[in-house]
Amino acid sequence: MKLIKDYIQLTKPTIMFLVIFTGSAALILEGSMLSRPLHFFLCLFALYLTGGCANALNQYLEREIDSKMTRTSSRRPLPSGRLNSTHALIFSVSIGVIGVLIFGFFFNWLTAGLSLATILFYSLFYTLYLKPNTDQNIVIGGIAGAMAPVGSWTAATGHMDIVPWIMFAIIFFWTPPHFWALALFCQDDYKKAKLPMMPVVRGDKSTLKQILIYSFILFATSLSLLAFGAGWFYMTIAVLLGVILIKKSYKALKHGNEKLFKGLFGYSILYLFGLFTAIVIDGFIF
Fold first, then answer.
1. Long-range CB contacts (< 8 A, 24+ apart) of 214-217?
2. Domain containing 237: what range?
3. Which of 66, 80, 94, 206 could cross-link to 202 by cystine, CB 3.0-4.6 Å?
4. Which pTM was predicted?
């Protein structure tokens, strides 16, 4: 059982829960799979496998870096020695291949191609090039984490649409405030690992200004769904959640301390869950 838990840990299940949640929100909003529950859950299973593959390959490639950071050295199965690196690589590639093939054979090859591209982008381009070389790593790398609504929608329909791309944009612009808030109170680890995260390279003040700017952009992006059918319930929740995020970002900028950074990080998670829950309720019930 411990071994199974370690393999699951390779997929970063807490992050994947967020991916599955945003992907399922797109499926519910699109609606055609609600009458086909087996396909609905098979799509989410494939989404977990492909996203989990990208995360597992990321951990495989970063196992030496993770061993230098307090936050990851004992928690993750590779730097702690709980898993053999070769076995981890085989597992990572296997679940990715299975996930891509499920999308291809049971849904469509457009979604399979998008999933494969996401795996390669995150595990290779982001992990090997962006993360160690630029303080914009999280911004550009956020493309991979934001793809779940687009992939789910194309799995259901076989084509692109503007609505899942707006959902993509919401997650994309949410990612920098979320991860930079984490980086602010974990920057000692990033210094040890020599990773150029925004607080390490630009300092706290500059990072907090960027967080505030992205919070405003995120707020505006969330409201753009109103032009594509979102109703009063979604608007109310989006405004409420967005105003709170901006206030917390401004407060962190003005009185920067670790408690406020952690509070902003925690709230950012609630924000995304709340916003996507509102998307589902507004589209499905109202």
1. 214/173, 214/176, 214/177, 215/177, 215/242, 215/245, 215/246, 215/249, 216/246, 217/173
2. 161-286
3. 206
4. 0.95
